[in-house]
Queue: 2 jobs
Job 1
Amino acid sequence: MQILENKTALVTGAASGIGKAIALRLAGVGASVAVADLDRSAAVPVAAEIAAMGRRAVAVEMDVADEKAVEQGFATARAELGLIDILVSNAGIQIVNPIESFAFADWRKMMGIHLDGAFLTTRAALPDMYRNDRGGVVIYIGSVHSHEASPLKSAYVTAKHGLLGLSRVLAKEGAAHNVRSYVVCPGFVRTPLVEKQIPEQARELGISEEEVVRKVMLGQTVDGVFTTADDVAQTVEFLTSFPSAALTGQSFVVSHGWFMQ
Ligand code: NAD
C-alpha cells in the first residue's frame, strides 16, 4: 500500500516546473491528482503521464485568481476524482521592477494570482476536508522570499510573506477538523519562471546574466547549486504524509542553505 493510496490531491500551476514535479511525485506515491492550470491543454500531458503510471488524473482548467473558475475547477476535480484531501497552492508568476516604477496593474495581478489564488483555492477545498472532520493537508508554495527581501521584487516578497499569515490562520482554524497547513519555501529553481528573470535582472541591475546566476541567485547557497523541483516535491511528499499536527503552521525552507531559519 502506497502512502497516498486513496487520497486525492489538487495541484495548481501543475502544467510546468515545480507544480508538475509535485503532481508527478504525489501520483508516484499513490495519489489521484487533479492537474490544474490556466490552460487545460497545458495540463493534459501531465495528467496523461500520471495516467500512464496507473494513477487517476484529470486536467482541470483553472485561473486561480478568478472565483468562478476556481469553484468550477474544484467541481470538475471532485466529480472525476472524489473529495479533495490535499491542496497544493503553487500557481505563481513573477514581475520584477523597482517600486517607483511598478505598475499598479502589475501589483494587483501579483496579489491576484498569489494571494487571491491561495485564498480562493483554500476556501474551495475546505468543505471537502471539514466534512465529518475527515481532514486534509494544505500546502502553499511560498519562497525564500516569504522570509527574505530582494530588490525589484516588492509584490512577490509581499505576497509570499502573506502566505505565512494565511497558513498560520488555517493551522489554527483547521486543527479541529484535522486539517494541517504548511508553507514550503524554495530557493531558486531553474524553471521557466526563473529563466525569464535572468535577463530581466541583468538589465535592471546592470550586470551580466552569468553574474545574476552566480552572485544573485546562487551566491548565498552553501554549494552554488540550484534547488531542484524534485527537492521541493520531496518536501511536499513528506508533509502530505506526516502523521500528526506537530508541524502544522510551519514553513520549510528548501534552498541549499541560502536562507536558514
Ligand atoms: P512556472 O512558470 O514553471 O510554472 C507556473 C505555472 O503556474 C505555469 O504552468 C502557469 O501556467 C501557472 N499559472 C500562472 N498563473 C496562473 C493562474 N492565474 N492560475 C493557474 N495557474 C497559473 O513556475 P515555477 O517556477 O514552477 O513556480 C511555481 C511556484 O513556485 C510559484 O508560486 C513560484 O512563485 C514558486 N517559486 C518558484 C521558485 C523558482 O525559483 N522557480 C522559487 C521559489 C518559489
Note: The chain has two domains: 8-187+228-251, 188-226.
Job 2
Amino acid sequence: MSRKLVAGNWKMNGGASTLAGLNDLAAAYQEAPIDIAVCPPAPFLAHADHIVSGSAIEIGAQDCHTAASGAHTGDVAAGMLAELGCAYVIVGHSERRADHGETNATVAAKAQAVLDADMRPIICIGESLDQRKAGQTLEVVAEQLAQSVPDTEAVHQLVVAYEPIWAIGTGEVATIEQIAEVHGELRAQLVDRFGEEGVGVPLLYGGSVKAGNAADIFDVAHVDGALVGGASLKPDDFMPIVNAMLARV
Ligand code: PGA
C-alpha cells in the first residue's frame, strides 16, 4: 500500500495572508499518519518552510529546471529547492506543459533532477477535453505516464498526479467511474514497469477537489490522495480535505 498524500498547489497565487494561514495548518497537524504538502510560489518557499518547520506539513515547489546549474536566467535548480527545505517538486503540470511547451521528455528530465536532489517529484499527467471526447483518455495518459516518469531505482520517491485538464479550476470534477478507470490503468502500468514497487507509488487525483467531494474521491481504488489547487489557498478549505484523508487511514 502506498502512503497517502494531500498536496496543495497555490499556483501563482498567495501573499502575506495566505502564508499566515500556514500557521493554522502547522498548528493543526503537528504529526500525521499521512503526508501533507503545500507548494507555494518560489519566492515564498523559504518563508513557508520556516513557518511549518516542526509540524507534519512539508513544502514543495511547483517547477524546477532540468540542469543542476548554469546559464538559465530566471530558472531554479532542483538542488536549490532542496537546500531551501523542499521535499517535493511538482513537474509537468498541464499549465506548464501549455504555457511553456513542456514535453514528456522535459518532464521526465525535471523529475530526474528532482530525484537527483533527493526530493520527490509529483509528476502530472492528464487528458484534454477533446482527447476525452475522442475516447483517447487511456491511451493519452498511458503515453504520458510512460514518457514522463524517468527510469529510476528510486521508485519509492515517485508521486504521480492524474489531473484531467478539463477538471482543473473549472469546478467540474471527473466522475468516480472516470477516476477509477484511469487510476486502475495507471496502477497496472506502474506495476508492469516497476514490479511490486509500483504498488507503492502514490497516485493523486487533481481537478476541482474540495471539501464536498474529497471523501468520495478518496474512496476510489488506487486514489492515494489529491493535488489541490484553488481549495489549498485557505486553511478552512484545505483542512477538511486533509481531514477526509485522515479519516480513511
Ligand atoms: P484545482 O487545481 O483544484 O484548482 O482544480 C488543481 C491543480 O491544477 O493542481
Note: Strands lie at 5-9, 35-39, 57-61, 88-91, 120-125, 159-162, 203-206, 225-228.
